Amino acid sequence: MSYLEAMENLGMGIGLKAARIAHFCCSLLTSILVMASIAHGSAAQEASSALPEVVQASVPLYPADALAAHVAGVVHLHVSTDGKAVTGTSEESGPAMLVKAAEESVRTWGFAPHAATSFDVTFNYKLADSTKCETGSRTVVLHLPREVEVDGMSSQCDMVRFAKQQKFLSEQRVYPVELAITLNGKPIELPREVSISNGTDSVMLQTIDGMFLAPQAMKGGAPLIFRTVIGKELIEVKGIPANTLEAVWRITLSDSESSPDLDLPKGMSVKTACSIAFASLEGNGTSMTVGACRKPIE
Description:
This protein is α+β, with helices and mostly antiparallel strands. The protein has five helices and 18 strands. The chain is 23% helix and 37% strand.
């Protein structure tokens, strides 16, 4: 199977519990702000010739555990580059819950070509007061590569936001599906896109913060087909019950015949098989094993 054929098999079209859904929707909103900030910040970066120019960066979200614990504060990092990407970070000060998030954010930065250098960056994580709950979005302000401000929300705001997002999801007729994939017992980075099909309709869906939004029209009908590309393989799981939407999907892959992660029937090869477990929001669960769900892409 060629790469082009694999991508065609993913399907065509564009698809449209508490803090995770809020993160998902806020990512869509703030990503535009991030890229705009990078573009508008280039002139400011040029004014300081000793600093490299940041040309790409992922959205820096407020860590969910820090939000739940009402932890705010300032993180100071020392960053080293090799002339193109970040090669190292060292913590100078800041709350532990926030340091990890700041380091992960910095490592997504891409730079215009420059001489290898190092510099200091400040991340300011602020919890919004309840009067800001009605503004409808978190604020991310970038002054790259020197300063990043992330305005978070209190637990009360999360509840307000969650209620709004539930209403939005209902109006948009979509179900949130949480996705996790492990290979050889270890979680792997999720693909940016997946597709689901009911045999008649096929939709391409974006994954953000470990989730994708599936159309309600797919639920309760014919069994579903899930497809995505991981590395040089097309992952295709057929026969997924349509009533498993609005649940957690955990896909297990392995390259070892002696792997304890996959309990396969006799005659089924671990290198082409996969299992998928479904856990509903009510705690109920089921699983299925597919014998030929991994197909190499030539």
